[in-house]
Amino acid sequence: MKTNEYEVTEQQIATFKERGYNDDLLPKTGDKRNMGIGNFFTLWMGSIHNIPNYAAVGGFLFLGLSPLNVMIAIFLSAFFVSAFMAINGIVGSKYGIPFAMHLRSAYGNLGAKLPGFLRGCVAAIAWFGLQTYTGSLALLIMIGKIWPGFLEIGGSTKIIGISIPGLISFTIFWVLNVLVGFGGGSILNKFTAILSPLIYVVFGGMAIWAIWGAGGLGPILSYHITATSHANPLLVYFIIFNSVIAVWAAPGTSIADFTQNAKSTKAQAIGQTLGLSVGYLIFAFTSVVILIGGSIHYNIQEWNVLNIIERWDSLPAILISMAVFLLTTISTNATGNIIPAGYQLTALFPKKLNYKSGVIIASIISFLIMPWKLMENADSIFIFLNGIGAVLGPVAGVMIANYFFIHYRHENLDTLYMDLNTGNKEIRYHGINKEAYIATILALVLSLSGQFIPAVKVISDLSWFVGFISAFLIYLGLKKMVSKKEPATVNSGVEMLENGGLKM
User: Fold this and answer.
1) Which terminus of the chain is less hemmed in, N or C, by CB atoms within 10 Å?
2) Do the beta carbons of residue 170 and residue 132 sit within 8 Å?
């Protein structure tokens, strides 16, 4: 591997450790950057084919587009997602730093705590619990097919709001998710490498069954669903774009936790772009075909893919398909939720926690919030997730604007890893980046305005894009105003500074 000009040295690592940073926050040295194009190609495959994503496609079909147009819109969404992931991942792949330090570079060491907490703790832990519960429903079906009596355990008795079989199923699946998250990126690489071929086989097979069950592809593509809205088709396309990228708002914001392990920026950019493009091409086709084909075959309108699978006559087919759904949910939880939560808790309490203890705490909290109770009211869940997405859109906008146009694609690791026990008021990463906070808050208010002002309701349908773009522009505008007043405080360009052999 070609030596990266910005690769840290062991001497620098030792210096950063003396300043109080644990291993999980330190930049990765070259020998620890082991993720190539293939690893990033398979990284997100399992995260696409999950149960909530299939439910979302069911909603897309009611927006007024034809099944073919829904497929095209979902596939095109992949290019927005991959661009976002690759661009925001450059800082991690270039310097080997995790999301917590990437966030510090934009918001300051104190300012990074709130957006970091929202992404790494609130969003990640809550969504981890919800995904685990959703996956446990598939496990419950599997166990029930093998051992029907299991579903009768405890009768109608409920413990903390859930049936005994449901609680057992959730606990088993929760443990499996925690174990994969506990292993971190190294386990995840092996896990996704095994999972990706299974996705092709199983979901391809399900699509073939759906086409057969519907009497061919023609009836599926010509299937008519009465639209619940009558928006302009172009607007509907962007609503789907926004919905898909909102799913990736959290992992895309904290993508540095994965790209810090990249062998090069080229590797992560190509790998993620190809992986998401291929993944969404398959998902766009299979999701629409399976949902509509299953509905035609059983003469119902069924948009819960688990209910379609449960109707099959073949027990082996049910078990295999449910097992793959379980594996994809584990992959989604690891990449998007539990790993970021573990790292972010470490960043919030660097002297008390490491990655593994962070994973344990996050996992316990995800159990204690009783996600099955949240699932009782679907509206409250979507409001919560939309709110988190509205927050993370502006955060991502600030992060990308800051790196490319304020710091001119250069970060000073020696000052980024400042000694927190000494005065650092003159360091640009110290304290709170007020302009970043102002831009984030104003963009958040704007992106949420559609929820409260009927005249601009369309904004709520495009909340991530509105939040990202407005934060991006507001932040650059505020920084330009500050630079005119205090030119000496603003980075004028590339910093040429040597620290222990590292040229920044």
Assistant:
1) N
2) yes
